[in-house]
Amino acid sequence: MAEENTVFIGKKGVMSYVLAVVTQFNQGANEVTIKARGRAISRAVDVAEIVRNRFVQDAKVKDIKISTEELEKKEEGEGNATKVSAIEITLAK
Amino acid sequence: MAEENTVFIGKKGVMSYVLAVVTQFNQGANEVTIKARGRAISRAVDVAEIVRNRFVQDAKVKDIKISTEELEKKEEGEGNATKVSAIEITLAK
Q1: CA dihedral (A6, B64, A13, A81) positive or negative
Q2: How far apart are the first and last CA of chain A?
Q3: I want to staple B36 with a disulfide (CB 3.0 to 4.6 A). Which of A37, B9, B11, B93 is the partner?
Q4: Are the beta carbons of A42 and B40 separated by less than 8 Å?
């Protein structure tokens, strides 16, 4: 159930993810979790802020978690980059 | 008092800021707040994770806040970029 209301932030434009989050709220979700890792973390914060300031103004930041994930394969092209920071931002109405 | 135990994340390498945070804990601080905005947000999460996983293992994430700040001048070179997301991560022993 948790995975249903989750939006993973990748390399698309911020508004793509804003739309995905807003759509989940509009379809009846009371909570949506925004997940990102590495450099996409900044974009995850942008998405959360834009959603709650512009589109779903009764949504509040319920929880923010940060963690470190081990990458199975090297994604960044850096020699030792096998760990990456991650964030989970949960918005709730 | 709050400002004393604050580390602002800029464009230096991650370890510069890790050292700044660790130094504050070693000088007796019980709490250190890591602040960043825009693209430095990802680096702020890296700093918090490296500090608590490698250097100050009794430090916990006490609070994380996200917000939107108005920039007084345009910093990013984008036409309408007058707002920027920000994060504050408070680590506490």
Answers
A1: negative
A2: 17
A3: B9
A4: yes
Q: How high is the ipTM of this complex?
A: 0.86
Task: Supply the angle between the helices A40-50 and B40-50 in degrees, to the nearest 10.
Answer: 120
When CB atoms are compared, the residue of A53, A64, A85 closest to B46 is A85
Angle at A73 between CA A70 and CA A75, to 5 degrees: 95
**What is A3-92's CATH number?**
3.30.110.20
Tell me which H or E stretch contains A15. helix A14-26
Q: Which two three-digit tokens encode residue A90?
A: 């949960």
pLDDT tens sequence across A27-81: 999 999 999 999 999 999 999 999 999 999 999 999 999 999 988 665 555 555 5
**Cβ–Cβ below 8 Å for B85 and A61:** no
- B50 Cβ contact list (under 8 Å, min separation 6): B14, B15, B18
Instruction: For residues B9 and B69, give the distance between their C-alpha atoms in angstroms, rounded to a whole number.
Output: 15
